[in-house]
Amino acid sequence: MSTKADRKTSRGWYARAVAFNVESLFSQKREPGPPRTIFVNQDIPDNYVDHKGRPKPEYVYTSNQVITSKYTIITFLPRNLLEQFRRIANLFFLGISILQFFPKFSTISPGVAILPLLVILTVTALKDGYEDIKRHESDKRVNHSSVKVLAGGEWKNTNAMQPKNKTFVRGLTRPRRRLPTPNSAGSHDDDTDSDAEFDDVTSDDTDEKPQGRKPHWKRILWEDLNVGDIVKIMDNDPIPADIMICATSEEEDVAFVETKNLDGETNLKSRHAVASLSHLRDAVKLAQHSFQINCDRPDTDMYRLQANVAANGDISPVDLSMTLLRGTVLRNTKWAMGVVMFTGLDTKIVLNSGGTPSKRSKVERQMNPQVFVNLLILAAMATCCAIADSLLQVKYFPMEAPWLYGADLSDDNPRINGLITWAFSLLTFQAIVPISLYISIEFVRTCQAAFIYFDADIWYEKTRQATICRSWNLSDDLGQIEYIFSDKTGTLTQNSMVFRQCSIGGRAYRGDADMDEGEEVVEGVKPASIDSDTKTESLAVNVDLWGVAQSSSSNIAMEPPQTPAQGADKVVEEKKKRTTPRFRDATLAQDIDFSVNADSDSEHAPHSRLLNGFFTVLALCHTVLTSVDPITGEIEYKAQSPDEAALVQAAADVGFVFCGRDKETLSLRTPSSSPDVEKYELLNILEFTSSRKRMSVVLRKLGGEDERLFLLTKGADNIIFQRLKDSERDLMDETEVHLSEFANNGLRTLTLAYKVINEDDYQAWSERYHQASVSLENREEKIEAVSSELEQDLRLLGATAIEDRLQDGVPDTIADLKRAGIRIWVATGDKLETAIAIGRSTNLIANDSNIIIIRGGGEGRTVYQQMIHSIDKFFPESGLGTGDHPRASTSSRDPQIPLQRINTGVTSIVGSQNGDRPGGFVLVIDGAALLYALEDEENKSLLLRLATMCEGVICCRVSPLQKALVVQLVKDGLGVMTLAIGDGANDVSMIQAADVGVGISGEEGLQAVNSSDYAIAQFRFLKKLLLVHGHWSYARNGTMILNFFYKNVVPVGVLWWFQIYDGWSANFVFDYIYILFWNSIWTIAPVIGIGLFDRILDSHVLMAVPELYHYGRRGTWFGLRSFFAYMIDGLYQSVIIYFLILYAYNPSPTSRKDGYDINGSEFSTTMAIVAVMVANIFTGFSATAWNAWVFFAVFIGILIVWLFTIIYSLLTPGYLVTFLYGNYYILFTSAYFWLCIPLTFFLSLAPRFIARAWNFGFEPDDLDTMRWISKYDPDHDFEHDIHMSHLTALRRLPSSTPRQSFHNGSASSFDLRASLDLRRPSLDVRAASRTDMATGLVSIDRGFDFATEERGVAMRRMQSNLTERRASNRNIEPARSTSKKGKETLSHMFSLRRGLRKKLSSSKKNE
């Protein structure tokens, strides 16, 4: 029992030693502070200070300075030394160096002995310091961004703050001129500040004060911002801290923020001011008022905040809807004023980010056990020498052996001399642990980082940015990646929505082939970089519509543009350049022109009315706001969602221009009404939610003879199809075909429909809707039920197809990475439909994939049950089903919901082969489900097993912390190499958690880049970074390290065999000079040459055949097996070198016949020269590309050792006393020497040469085959060679089909007439299925997606206004005729040209 306990204790000790993190000593995990009370313009109470008048620690808040670097001036030396001494070899050589400070063991000067270690430590420290200086410079750009704060007047801020840290860069560089910093009191007063900004107000209280003392706004640095400061954020400004909103420039104090840097969602979120503070709208009023904010303690929950404001005796609640979080960007809002609640490390985005880790490459981690093996061998050799020497001395001392004369002292006797021999043996055999290995690796990795930096293929010309290695020690990890975790927004996509195609009345319009030509396209609406003063454009669509100004019915006050001031024309040009591509389709344009002039009796009239209705729905069914650019005179569409902006823009592109809203009145100009503007009264908004998957508006057309009511609806195809009239079946079938085509092309689809509502029916429904909206119980459920009543018997108009524009080359890159065997997981804050749509467009989800959806927080099965049912249903052969995992339900209800088909009212859209599609499975799991899946080890294990059986995984609606937890789950659970890539602050924790973190720069700020190991400009650069540079670096470094170990075994082996004939005395057989320069001169060049210039294959081959990357993934180039193989080679060669030469010279160590004593230098020098030749040529054999540099590196050491031997043996004792003087004459005239050189050389290298020749000739692997083809057919096209699939590693995945192009318009290979003949059963076989494990529903995925804020502040206020209006009019009879029955046909619906309306009117009279 004790033995078992001892083993357990030993394992625990080793596990703790391996898991030790240096950063834990220097960056203690900071616990969140207690709940806080912020005193705004008030003195802090007496209980906040101690008896000395100093603030108590719990009431001192962290500064707003955020540092992502590792070192400071104080911690640099101890932390860096601790990091370097994690290497066992460094500890060993430190001990050896200390040993040589004792005279008894000194072989050379102690200073010279420790010099190599000092050089290694210094060079590595300089490299680490340089890397960290770059991090500090990036931090400085962030922390030195500016923000406007309140200053002057009676304003004061007494909340205590911690001082800022003195950073590494500040200690090394001279401070530059910067913005003024606040004074010690916390208020930002500066009478001489020339940057002060005064609000345009007058006040008797402030007019008498000097200009500098009036309340005003001044700019300070982000890092100088304090808790309790009042700030003014301008449009497009990033938010510097977590801020409570006091007032905004917009109606009803609403503000819009872009949160994709936090949660990855592309739609804008609405926020509003605290009602009790909304009257504080300028600096003077803010400086004159005081109040308190009571906040909960800082936490990591991105979706929850609890606080309240106590002002004038009233307490107002504060939640997340009233706050602006750090990392977001203010959009579509002129300004917002607020109070800083949390700064720096207490902000939610920083709490969700980890500290900067000290990463070590996998190769380096694997080296420690190998160095440990060498140390064990060294210890064993030293122990053997010590025991043998001690036994021999004990035996021969009584015989008065002459070499033991005087060995009877306390420190020199047979019994103690064994220990001395043991210490001497450590010095003799120390070369088995290569001290130059680490500095060589650092040098090689530095050069590899330079190779990456200067690679023109991964240089982004648009921003003139190279790929930058921020952590030079991870280059070989790039060649071993097994899992990639990617963000979506800004990483895979540009966050730019483009309307590409549509289906109207069963006819598809696919856009012109040259739609993108001749226009410079916005890269995406990105938030301003947090370190830059440059402001990006708001989420707006610019439409040049001065013609609208001629219409008095437009609600937008327009005037012709003024003559542009000097330089304004440049602004106009810049805005035009930023305009997104316009939707153009020649066929559609002809059809619309024809519809304007069409006769109501013609055969084309029905389709003309459908066209009118389709684009009217696009132009009116939304929540978009409008404004007019004062310079360009263009209407700007400001939308919360880029989807809505793209839809409204598309309608405007074809002539259906939304001109704005005036309260509840919407204005629209159409091709048939121009130049007049039609007016519609907005009666109800049935808003979009993730459960409804649709949005509807109820409108009344104003003016004219017919003021009927219309319901306009857009939403998911399966939701809309269930609500269509039975007469729409044929059109639905045709639209389904187009929807599937759009989805297979990776486009996001939306289906449009409408309904004409009878006035009496609407009044009855409106009463029910009002009752539901004011209900105190189950309000949302009642509203949904009443809304669903109205959204029935719809008429189908068509469908839209929007492209969420991807970064260049993303689909091909992902397809090739999948071919390389790398699993790709996407972690995004976007909703489920958006994540699936991006998965399809990026090739992560193939056309024939099956999608397994696991959701949490809703009705149906628990998360655990969903995972179990997924395995039972789709992976029964795994044996991981319910039978193997019995577990009690965690819910009181345990419904057994069977998988079922969704019926659209016509036929099932699920084919008979659901779940059996050939494309494999993709798991989609949301953040609520992950919350439960990661709560215990059993759930983690089950999730991991389910995920690994799927081809890909998409995690949606996840927080930044959950991203890191998912990476950690895979990294620790599977023990695989992981890479995380992102571009926003929400990706920092994920990047830090992965083995390799990659930041994409230039899109969402610098947080991701600052925390990354590699900075690239485009996702597509990841392909070459991994497949070429990563593969090369891993193969080079692995081969170099193995050869380092090998080449040191050769001389150590020779020294060991010599001990048999030297009484185990630990003496050297060579002259010590050969051992001294073994690693630094004789054999260093070949291993460095391999590390820098070897190529397993040319770059174009590795790019064309990604499957070859599997050699890196499975650790071909480095591991214990290879290590022992190289060690055995070295041992064998040492046997050949020593014993062959020994017996060749036998019985004398010299060929001289005169009996002259040369101390064995002749035959030992022969051994030294041969050992150098064998080691260098053997190392050269390990190279696969013998270019000029490798050839030079292999032979330069051999040449030097020959020249050195000649010159060194020429030195007379007058210059230097050596044992080798005259050896050149004896050695080079000896037949023994010239016999031993070739014989030993060839016998030593024969086994490896024969083995390689056999493998290449009879058992070639894929690399050998590729090299052979490349040599004899340099222009061979590997990418399109059909014979490549027959190679072992090149079995291409069926789901790696490249994405189809949809930019070709009519030139597309897709034939519309052929598509109409397709039947759904055949379509189901190739279409992707979706299985929602929470409900058991199975459906065909047709690419539906629509992003908008659900139940946001702006929507709630709009609904409140409509509710108040309904309440005030409930008992008033509408002043409209109700005698007209609504004929539900499009002939009476939307606007047609005036002539046609007259015809319709006359025809009605005739009836």
- What structural class results from the helix and strand content? alpha+beta
The proportion of strand residues reads 5-15%
Largest sheet: 12 strands, mixed
Mean pLDDT: 78
Topology, number of strands: 39
* Number of helices, counting only DSSP H or I runs of 4 residues or more: 45
* Spatial strand arrangement across the major sheet: 16-37-36-35-17-30-34-33-31-38-39-32
Q: Which stretches of 5+ consecutive residues score pLDDT under 50?
A: 1-11, 168-186, 202-207, 517-568, 883-915, 1292-1326, 1372-1407
Q: Terminal Cα separation, in Å?
A: 104 Å
Helical amount among residues, as a percent range?
Answer: 40-55%
Morphology call: elongated
Provide the gyration radius in Å: 38 Å
Family: Belongs to the cation transport ATPase (P-type) (TC 3.A.3) family. Type IV subfamily.
Domain P-type ATPase C-terminal: 1009-1260
Pfam family, one: PhoLip_ATPase_C
Cofactor: Mg(2+)
